[in-house]
Specification:
Shape of chain A: elongated
Number of helices of chain A: 13
Distance between the termini of chain A: 72 Å
Strand order of the largest sheet of chain A: 2-1-3-4-5-11
Largest sheet of chain A: 6 strands, parallel
Low-confidence stretches of chain A: none
Radius of gyration of chain A: 26 Å
Oligomer: homodimer
Helix content of chain A: 40-55%
Strand content of chain A: 15-25%
DNA sequence: CTGAAAGCGCTTACAG
DNA sequence: CTGAAAGCGCTTACAG
């Protein structure tokens, strides 16, 4: 690999003149010299060494994208994460930056990682709320969270109106004549996303004089664990006649569940109506197609990168957060009673 | 951020003693000194700067994972890519290396990227066959391809028996009494994966005295473009009575197509039988569940990382390639005639 | 417009 | 067991 020095020697100039050309400081170099150097750069296939540049400028062009998870897990099995990540990588690259992807969760690992590569910024997906403050405090670079809730004042987050999502689901069920309902999703202890959806759901029911029966709050730790899902399907089957509809916090869970329920002889929507969340492609692929609360994942991903780069490129840019809207998409998984 | 020097000053030793401790060369440092330095490292939260290390050792710990695609595209919308990538990232990280993800396709961009960060190795997904040789020739680090075919002698590739996949599909159709069949997939000009599946399919039909009618080779450029898919669905609808089954080269395409066909009044499997490819989760989520040619994506991803690291860590390790087996999973998308 | 020098944080022989 | 020195490839004031 040729270095600056090689180019300089070849051109008969100093390394710093070459450096100026490489970095586009054309005002400091005569046009002829510039042209000559550019020709040599092209001919010798010179590519600047970013490690060296990063070392002296104390900046890399690296953005660290961190997916919450265990080291031996595959968070991209979940299409929700995959779609977000794909858009994020693509946008980071368009800015001329480099995306380093990590799967981790502990605040120490994260801060270590950020320092190791002198990352200039970070985007964190799916962190638990109680981890946020610790992570923010150990780092001095811009960090944008996706889907996090925290009282930490300096938090930069892109999320959606989860509470409204819950309300919309409840309202739709009520309009369709449902009066006894269930809620299915991860335990809400760690993340307010689920808690907010749950509260919106309950509050809206309450408003219409239908208090939520907490016996029908079903928890599910993983949306990949088939065994756990099976147990849940069994429990639901046993309670078959006690509720007519269920709000499920993700399309992924809903579509998996639907299959298992069918195996137990429960048909959607005849025996049980379902509203899910996200509006991924799967909603239209399953039968019946899923009525769901829609959110715009591409927009979510794009905005988080936009916000990050605003902080990165504008000195003293304020800490921004954004809350995107949600809407209900009606399909065929809710029966009119 | 503290540096080696800071630690050295604090401990009253030279930077190189600290360097030895950081790098675990304990034989060169007395136990007491080691202990003292380790305490300081922990107390000051010292993290080595990899840019500096990379510069002097002329190696980074970076593995570049490259997904073929346009810069403004999201290849992770396709669950096939997402699952592979997730496993790859996770395994790279377990090795103590760092995964940098890029979406690109030109050989120059790729070689530039590899040099910029001094990547130690690379894994390339979905490259076209005619790009392989160019890419290999511009780089001197170990590269492992996934799903590529090329006559390039030094190619390291992890793939599956695509030809057999085609054969299995044909045989299954024949066993179920089908005699006139279609083939649906991307144009095979760029990638032998599709070509092989097609040939296996045709050859097996031929063997049973059923020549494939090339009018029923339908091409589809993208498995994300709904418009193109719609046009295809219409074409198929028009040819409704001319074939009884179709071999579709991915679950993704098959499940999307199934929906559109249903909208045109074509029911699977009654009006048309389908065999797809990959055996992703979606196969069990759609109705009817898809009969498909199964491949093991986690294994594919794991093996490619294994092969890469064998080349990376063992001097003079030979260039390895692997071909994984496929099998037919019978579900409900093929009707017995 | 051009260059000599110092330095970013680290490692690698080499000397003691 | 410990350290002084050189150097990885680059940029940044500074001087001319």
């Amino acid at each position: 690999m040729p270095t600056l020095k090689d180019i300089a020697t070849e051109a008969g100039v100093s390394v710093m003149t070459v450096s100026n050309v490489v970095n586009g400081n054309f005002s400091k170099v005569s046009p002829q010299t510039t042209a000559r150097i550019q020709e040599i750069i092209k001919r010798l296939n010179y590519v600047p060494n970013f490690s060296a540049r990063s070392l002296v400028k104390n900046n890399s062009h690296i953005i660290s994208v961190i997916l919450r998870g265990e080291k031996n897990q595959n968070p991209l099995k979940n299409p929700y994460n995959a779609i977000l990540l794909g858009t994020i990588i693509s946008k980071i690259q368009q800015q001329g930056y480099y995306a380093m992807i990590n799967i981790m969760k502990s605040a120490t690992d994260i801060s270590k990682n950020l320092h190791t590569w002198n990352a200039e910024g970070a985007i964190l997906l799916g962190m638990f709320d109680d981890e946020i403050e610790k992570i923010c405090s150990v780092s001095d670079i811009p960090i944008v969270f996706i889907d996090s809730y925290s009282n930490f004042r300096q938090l930069s987050n892109v999320g959606i109106d989860d509470y409204k999502g819950g309300q919309l689901a409840a309202r739709h069920f009520i309009e369709k004549g449902h009066r006894s309902l269930a809620f299915i999703g991860p335990p809400s202890s760690h993340t307010s996303v689920i808690q907010q959806r749950f509260e919106g759901f309950c509050d809206e029911l309450e408003t219409h004089g239908i208090p939520f029966d907490t016996r029908f709050r079903f928890s599910l730790k993983s949306d990949v664990d088939h065994q756990e899902m099976k147990v849940l399907a069994k429990t639901i089957t046993e309670h078959k006649n006690e509720f007519t509809g269920a709000f499920v916090t993700s399309d992924q869970t809903a579509s998996l569940l639907m299959n298992l329920l069918r195996q137990n002889g429960i048909l959607i929507p005849d025996d049980l109506s379902l509203i899910s969340f996200d509006n991924l492609e799967i909603c239209e692929q399953v039968t019946p197609q899923l009525t769901t609360i829609a959110q715009d994942l591409s927009q979510k991903a794009e905005l988080s990168v936009d916000i990050l780069f605003r902080r990165l490129l504008t000195p003293n840019a304020p800490v921004e957060s954004m809350v995107l809207d949600v809407s209900l998409i009606e399909r065929n998984s809710v029966k009119t009673l």
